Amino acid sequence: MRETPKRKLSQTQAAWVLLVPFLATYALFLVYPFFRGVWISLHDWNLLAVAFNPDAKEFVGMRNYERVMWGRNIEWGLLATPFWQGLGLTGLALSVILGAATKSSRFNVIALGVASAFLIVVSGFHPGEEGRWYDRRFWPTVGNTLVFVGLAVPGVTISALLLAAALNRETRAMGVLRTLFFLSQVLSVTVVTLIWQIMFSPRQGLIANITKTMGGTPINWLTDQQFAMAAIVIATIWWSLGIAMILFLAGLQDISKDIYEAAALDNARGVKAFVFITLPNLKRTITTVVVLQIILHFQVFGQSHLMTQGGPNDTTQVLVRYIYQTGFRDSELGRASAMAVFLFIIMGSFSVIQFIVGREKT
Amino acid sequence: MNRSYYWLVLGLSIPAFLWLVPTIWMVSLSFQPNEVLARTTSTTFFGLIPIPFTAENYGALFAFGQTPWWFLNSIIVAVGMTLGVLAVSTTAGYVLARMEFPFKRTITLICLIGLMVPEQAVFIPLYTMFADFGWHNSYHALILPRMAVPIGVFLMMQFFRAIPKDIEEAARLDGVTWLKIFWYVMLPLARPAMMTLAILTFLYAWNDYLWPLVSAQQRDYFTITLGLASIQSNFAQSEGLGRVMASGVIASLPVVILFLIFQRYVVQAMTVGGSKG
Q1: pLDDT for B37-75, tens place per residue?
Q2: CATH topology of domain A137-331
Q3: Whether A37 and B121 lie within 8 Å, measured CB to CB
Q4: What is the chain B residue with the closest CA to A297?
Q5: Interface residue A180 vs chain B (CB under 8 A)
Q6: Measured between CB atoms, does B217 come within 8 Å of chain A?
Q7: Domain B63-276 adopts which CATH fold?
Q8: pTM for this prediction
Q9: In chain B, N or C: fewer CB atoms in 10 Å?
Q10: pLDDT by residue (tens digit) across A262-300?
Q11: SS3 letters for chain A?
């Protein structure tokens, strides 16, 4: 046995030496800011006033949350917002039917039921007579974000799934095609919005030019209330299809070729094989992709901020952009932080779902 | 390969081409003269072929304007952030994967919880903190917040866990210190994982928009992503469509080249990044 010199670090000491750089940045730039954000949300905190005089903030408790999410004479009623509550009821019914009828993953059914019940309860609140929301824009903004997620996630998931199924062969041509579909994924949000802003332009845009050649009248995509959200969703699908496609391709690799060969003997090829073999075997991957996409697209900011500036008439105003504006245009850091905490709670619950889904796999 | 395979490839080539059209259009517009573009953007085949051709937009980009400077800022921030993230993630990842010490489980759990916090939930308090320090409009302000995100630590931790213990134990028996084992034995083995993490971080740094938008208010500290956002709203009046498109092409070149060379790592990096943070 060799003698250990005294200066040599013990395992614990060495561990701490190697851990400290990360733990220090983590504590300083993530943990502390998080709690500081909660603390700011409990104050009436004006960005400019506090910048000049650190004492110009006032502790107001939960009042920022109240000013953002609540109002005067708020009542609750079933069918107060037919669209959202109808959606919630449909979801609830679906989860009950699925839960009773099939042996589909219990977790998915419960998640759907809880989310639907939540939607019914939350969207049932509305201002009664003489009542009004304190912040008239907050809930519509949350609604717009949900609409964006509701359009972008199925759009990306379905097209990525079909593409992945078609591209699932290890040949050179397929490799090239995958590269082409994945390429737009590495571009930055500002390049994507730059391209699509001009693509959609009614005067200079490619889409307008093609419409004109075919004798149609160009649509004013980005300033028309009916089309602005659709335009943002199209740009987003173009941008973020790649990851979903790659995740599906990875999932497809895990399905054994034998199953397809056996099915081919029973005359199940092409579409039939896709519906009866590919889809059931990809269930877990699909859940993962959907949850990931929800988390990703709930944080949408650049597309709305750069392409439509939240307009026309607030139809594309989304949550992160509203937080940004409340904080940095209106200087209301307290209210902005309250919204950020709201965002964190929603995203956090989806992260927990993602964690549980990921756990199920192993 | 049978006939249906060729039909499939042919059938898929059409959507693949359509998928590329927006990108081709940007590149093509960047090679057309501004005077022509002011009149019409669909000169030759809807403007997808750059005739009349000019490279003037790129020349103008480097002669005036701040695009080259923003490009340089982006390189500094992206490289700095990549090195920083690699340094803190490999060390912490190794410790949490391989060493034994008190409170290890607690610390691992605390780091895991950090994965749940999105950037959007902390950018306001970070802004006020950096304002208090007087750090805004600097490179470290753009770099530091990302170093605190635990995704890299988990990536490295998973990698180190998969390495067989024999090598390490042999070195331990020879009396090699922990720090030396980490530096001389483990790091060389970790190169593929470090590559994936480096590309993930570089792409993130290059494309990040929200934090630079609030932190860098002086145009001198804009990254190219931020700078491009600042000129795209008024392209018609000031710079000319061709030049703005040329900026867009320049802004995309590094990530596109990175992607084409290291495709396997990029796909892997984005899969990991997409699934965790």
Answers
A1: 877 777 777 778 888 888 888 988 888 778 899 999 999
A2: MetI-like fold (1.10.3720)
A3: yes
A4: B274
A5: yes
A6: no
A7: MetI-like fold (1.10.3720)
A8: 0.91
A9: N
A10: 888 887 777 888 888 888 888 888 888 998 899 899 999
A11: CCCCCCCCCCHHHHHHHHHHHHHHHHHHHHHHHHHHHHHHHCEECEHHHHHHCCCCCEECCCHHHHHHHCEEEEEECCCCCHHHHHHHHHHHHHHHHHHHHCCCCHHHHHHHHHHHHHHHHHCCEEEEEEEEECCCCHHHHHHHHHHHHHHHHHHHHHHHHHHHHHHCCCCHHHHHHHHHHHHHHHCCHHHHHHHHHHHCCCCCCHHHHHHHHCCCCCCCHHHCCCCHHHHHHHHHHHHHHHHHHHHHHHHHHCCCHHHHHHHHHCCCCHHHHHHHHHHHHCHHHHHHHHHHHHHHHHCCCHHHHHHHCCCCCCCCCCHHHHHHHHHHCCCEHHHHHHHHHHHHHHHHHHHHHHHHHHHHHC
